[in-house]
Design brief:
Blueprint (H helix, E strand, L loop, with lengths): L5 H9 L2 H8 L61 E9 L3 H11 L18 H5 L3 E6 L22 H7 L4 E3 L9 H14 L4 E2 L1 H4 L7 E5 L2 E9 L4 H10 L4 E7 L10 H13 L3 E5 L7 E4 L2 E4 L4 E3 L7 H4 E10 L9 E12 L5 E3 L13
Parallel strand pairs: 1-2, 1-11, 2-3, 3-4, 6-7, 7-8, 8-10
Antiparallel strand pairs: 1-12, 5-6, 9-10, 12-13, 13-14
Length: 376
Amino acid sequence: MSTGTPHLGSWLRALGLAGLLACAGCRAEAEAAPRADAEAAAAPARVETEWSSEASPEPPPALPPAPAASGSAPAPTAPVPAAAPARLAFVGDIAMTMLVQHWIDARADGRAVPPEVDAAFPFAHVAARLAASDLVVGNLECVLSPLGARATTHNPFRCSLRTPEVLLGGHIGLVSVANNHALDFGAKALADTLRRLERGGLPSIGRAAMEGRPTEPFLRTIAGVRVAILGYAVPPRQALADVAAAAGRADFVVVFNHWGAENRPEPTPEQRAGARALVDAGADLVVGTHSHVLQPCEWYRGKLLAYGLGNFVFNAMQDTEARRGGAVLEAELLSPDEAPGRARVAAYRLQRTRLDDHGAPELVGEPEPLRPPAEP
């Protein structure tokens, strides 16, 4: 959709970045991060094999089928199993800091830890669930670097340098650094965070958005679906052009936002307007974090909008049950080969989670049944 559309233009004019950051309780950083290499894209999760004629000898000619006996019925044809759908999962805020950081490092260093802090901490109770998806995306709300001095008035978050290994072990496959804590220790610490994630084999999104540059999407082909994922800390005007460009390169576009107001169970008017504008620009799924409580999901023009997934790993958020709560959003995709047009969400569900006293997630109850898209 053109960015000149009347309702979109009015939304963008009324909704400047500074206003949205104020709504989200975020503080803009004066120091801009340096330019760095484009965000790395990991190898495809499920790569279709292509057989080379050079690698395999030419098979012998097939024998003609034997004639069927007179009066006999043709042999039944075995049904072809349906291909597994692409499965994406999304989680909320991951702060590998404070007590979580302490227990990770203490256990690795051989110091005494509680019995529940095992080798799989903090993902021991959720790893099997996450492993059922082809790709799990979360918001990394901490700085993975010892560099820099405090550069914020809110609580600064550093995390364990073992974080990439721990996240990968918990089946987190992509993280966004587009959030209000990415610059807690300045631009050099953010650049170092990205380097450490890359060296650790964990791809990330969101750096270009933090620098106000056009954003290249993370791209991966999953079960035959070309998926593009973009990350923003409150989507700026540039996001609409980024989404439109990504839609031309992929079958399915996800926008992963850090936005809205903290501790508010309903999305703000700005979130609702922004999510719809992103869909109009070409997004197929919009997912949000930052609220620290669960916010609802809804459909717009056949596209799923999940406004806020709450906390996933976070110490010091156990003061209320609402802030302990979160969810894993699981989405199954219908590929363009199965239906005309773009790939789309065929069904989704939420698996509720709850933070334990150490800031680690536990599954709550049974997962919801898969929900088909609502009627437009």
